Amino acid sequence: MRLLCLFLVLAVCLLQVLAAEDYYKILGLDKSASERDIKRAYRTLSKKYHPDKNPGDETAREKFVEIADAYDVLSTATTRKIYDQYGHEGIEQHRSGGTAGRQTHDPFDLFSRFFGGGGHFGHAPGHRRGPDMEFRVGLPLRDFYNGREVEIVLEKQQICDACEGTGSADKEVITCDKCSGRGAFIQKHMLAPGMFQQVQMQCDKCGGQGKMVKKPCGVCGGHRVVRRDVETAFTVEPGMDKGQKIVFENEADESPDWIAGDLVLVLEEREPELGKSEEQRTDGTFFRRKGRDLFWKEALSLREAWMGDWSRNITHLDGHVVHLSRPRGQVVQPLSVETVVGQGMPPYSEGHLHDQSDEDDDVPGNLYIEYTVILPDQMESGMEKEFFALWQKWRKKIGVDLAADGNRPAHAHAHAEKDEL
Q: Which domain of life is it from (predicted)?
C-alpha cells in the first residue's frame, strides 16, 4: 500500500513536470535568446499581465506568476544551463535538494527589482510614483511614411542588480539604532530657563532612511541605484504624425522608494537630407508635410510650361514612381497646383478596433505639386530677333490690352496696339 501511494505521488509530480509550459515559450523566445532578450521580454510581459493592471482576472495572475518563474530560471546562467539540459524536472531537483538548491523569487519581489514600488504597478493607491521622463526623437519623413523599428540608447537610473536595490553587498539591511528606523528624531532646544522648543531633525546617521547597511554594495556604493545606458526599442507606424507620443509605462527612472514613472518618447521630424544609400536617394526625401498631405515643387522650362509635351517621374518615399506629364499644347501656369489623389501619407488612427471613426480616417492624403517656371537668363541675338518677330506677329492678332482688361486708367500717351498674348 505504501509503495502504491509513493508511486501515485511520483506519477502526479511527473505529470506536473510534463504539463508545465516551456519557459522560453512563456517569454515568447527561442533557446538562442540573449540575456538582454530575456530581460526585455520579462519587462514587457510582466507589465502586461500584472494583477494591478488586470484586477479580478485570475488567468492574468497565473500568467504573471509563470512569467516570473520563467525569468527566474532563465536569467541565471546556472539554472538556465540545468533547464536546457534536463528541463523542468532538473529545475525541480535543483530547487528541492543539494547545497546548490534555492527558493524561487516571489513574483512581486522580482517585479519590484525592475520597477520599484514594492512590486506594484502603475498608479497603485498608497504608493509613491516617480516622475515621468520625456525624450524627443528626431526621424526623417521617410520613417513616418514607411514605418520603422527603431532602437535608441537612453541613460536612465535603474535599481542595482548586484544588491537588488538594498544597497548592501550581502543584501542585509539593519534598522538605524539612532532613530529606531523612523528616519528622524526629536531634539530639544532651550529658549530660556524653563522654556524649551522641540524640533524634528532628520537622522544624520542613516540620512533619513531609517535603515543602514554594514557592507555597502561595491557596484552602486550603497546608493541602491545606478545610472546606465539602456537600449529602448519602439515601432513607428506608417502615417504617424510629428509630435506623436509613444508611452512606456513604468520605464522611467527607477528607485526602491517609488513606482517608476512613464517613459514618453515624442517623435519629431528631422530636416531633410540626402540619404547615404541608393534607396534613400529619393525625391520624396524633400517632400514637405502638412497633416496627411504632402507637397512638392516641380520646375518647368519656358517651353514645357508654354508648349507642353513633357513628362516627369518623381520617386516617392517608398521608392514607387509618381508620373507627371502634359500633352503638346497644354499650358501650365506658373505657381499652379496639381493634386495627385491618394499619394500623400498613409492613414493612421490611434483609435481601437471597436471605436467609431470617420470613413476619412482610412483614406490616404494627397500629393500637391506646385509648378514653377524657369525663364532663360539670356538669349542669343539671332534667337531674340526671331522670338520678338514671332511675338509681334501674334500679339497684333490675338493680343490683350492689359490696361483695359484690368480696368485701369489709360496712359495719356498709350499706343493703340495690344500688349500681350
A: Eukaryota
Q: How far apart are CA 300 and CA 324, in angstroms?
A: 12
| pLDDT surpassing 90 at residue 269 | yes
How confident is the model over 390-419, as a mean pLDDT? 69
Only one residue has cell 492624403, namely: 365
Predicted structure pTM score: 0.68
Judged against a pLDDT cut of 90, whether residue 90 lies above it is answered with no
Q: Which residues are within 8 A (CB) of 161 and not within 5 positions of it... i.e. 6 or more apart?
A: 113, 219
